[in-house]
Amino acid sequence: MFYAHSSPEGHPWEPLKLHLERVAALAECFGTSFGAGEEARFAALLHDLGKYSERFTRRLEGTESGLDHWSIGALASAVVARTNALAAAFAIHGHHVGLASPEIFQTLQVKPAPANWTEADPRKALDLLAADGLTLPELTGSIYDRKGPPAGAMVDVRMLFSALVDADFLATEEHFQRFEPFPFSRPEGPSLDAGRALSLVKAEIERKAAGSDASPAVRALRNDLLEACLAAGESPRGVFTLTAPTGSGKTLAMLAFALRHAQEHDLRRIVFAVPYVSIIEQTAKIYRDLFAPTFGEDFVLEHHSLAGLAPDPITNEEPSDEERRRRLLAQNWDAPIVLTTNVQLLESLFANRPSACRKLHALADSVILFDEAQTIRPDLAVPTLAGLSRLAERYGASVVFATATQPAFDHLDAQVRPFAAQGWKPQEIVDPGLGLFARARRTRLVWDLDRPKSWPELAAEIVASDQALAIVNLKRHARDLAAAVKVLAPEGLFHLSTNLCPAHREKVLADVRKRLVDGLPCRLIATQCVEAGVDVDFPTVWRAFGPLESIAQAAGRCNRNGRREEPGEVRIFTPEEEGFPPGAYDQAARATRTLIKSLGTDAIDLDDPALYRRYYRDFFDGSRIAEGKAELLEAIRAHDFAEVAKEYRLIEKDAIEVLVPYDREAFDALRDEVTAAGRPFARWMKKARRHVVSLYRPKRGDEVWSVLAPLSAAPRKRGERDERLERDEWFVLTGGGKYNDLLGLEGVGTVMIA
Known about the structure:
- By secondary structure, the protein is an alpha/beta fold.
- Helix content is 44%, strand content 15%.
- α4 runs antiparallel to α5 (86-97) and α9 (194-211) runs antiparallel to α11.
- It is globular, with a radius of gyration of 28 Å.
- The protein starts with 15 loop residues before the first helix and ends in a 9-residue tail after the last strand.
């Protein structure tokens, strides 16, 4: 008898046949959802083929170690079984070590077999598999086409890989659950009751409209957007854009589209991806308040790096039931509505590790919504669009890019097609004939670019208005401008940047909104962090010259609700110390300058969607940035999964998290708690996330290290000795560091994330 699992002492091992049958049933179910049930079953039956060996039995008994039980199954799938089931072969080989490159199949056939293989002869293992009563499906081909467009082909492999590894994880978990039960079984995510959920969304929109202080014109505009989204929801599945002005109710309208679309096509899931965690948190609250009373807490799943879902490697303390339930649901996105970040979603789509890819099969028959689509990195646009295109083409997913400043990604269609056959030709959800942007015109632009302005000079202009917002490109600019305004008018002065921890930013925005409503003096100096997903409404906005989409997003914070009789004023200026974040932002600012020189400022109409098409086309063509990273594209062409995972990074720079004393009581409690014995770090991290500031990891020897203390997390016993583990990404601001009530973390602005 051959066994699959090394159970805890005193517990029986599971017969290998039973394990393979369970994995095969689950994998076939997952694979069937995207037309690859047979190959998924085939991969599942062969994924542990190397366990049909005496060497693996000795490994379970503890007399051998360091054995490879997966490569023999990959070899059997690719060569011996003569099915050319290469997707299965990739998945089998990678289910422990990660997806590799096609060269692995040449390595597998080298004779003699490596010494660490549990079995050298795949035919012998296949005979034992058959003798155990397991029959392989007869495949005529593979989901993977080595000669097809490479990004699409790699998505196909990852989807099959996802089905296999999730099935393997679930079957293994079920086995151990029989002997050491969790406090409760793995929860089964509720179904997406799209029709009922849509009724709740419509009712919420009506409730908000009744209590809104927006003008009748704005309310009519929002209603027309909703109706357009509901009508478009009946369209065939595919790729869409949703181009709507800021303040038009886009967040709930796009959810209404997704639910109507899911209702029309019997789709399983809605995945909502945004660029920033702060947007997720506010959206998650809206969605939970809306759906939890009817469908329960598991209807909406929040999944991102600070959601406290990662396993805790520091202590042995059991997570709470709620934490365990959310963690289990997050592993394979088993929830009807998933709120996540672009980083989590897109990097998973290009990943090669089992844990990251495990949830990808959940994207089949789903609606994938990208809010603030203009933030998608242009140098990653071609592979990103190719991967999403494949999900729409083969896996029944619909993809929506929503923003007020829609990038002309369809201009890249010819560049996408060599990587994904369907290319990128999205359908616009909103009929241009509705004239939403013209109807939303609530501001007028004042271009003041003739002469650069000093911060004191600009501060004098700002304080002439009782209520004003000024947005600059760099955090040190925000710091200097805030200091200049403080000299002239300290009352009602606020500053907003990522130098402030989330709890501090929340308090600033709450105070700002209240003062705006109460008619009190209110002057907010901010970086571009205020431009995406932040609902504020100022009569006057100053915006440092920058990318066109940033200028437009800034204008969206001016007279947002259309309550004022006169248009709000947006003043574009050039600071005396001009500077931009490097990379795409800098290149986009240059493209904007070129556009203005070509058209003249009088022709720059931020309420004309055609302007953005021209801008983005010129940006893509002029900067050549959309040609992308050569190393990434070369890895995609080579179908090198490991190299692609390494090169596809939305955030290239390593970051650290610093606990800051914005709230001294919370700071002291969090600092003391994490160092106390038996406190799990993952649970602490969830509470601490509102009190941390993110920094790019400083260079070795940087002076900022002198005010950062590594965060030592709870000790755990190993034998007779306590061992305290340090987290190299989490730090505490020491007494030598300064946290200012106005500016936040001081003295290290040049190394912090903008």
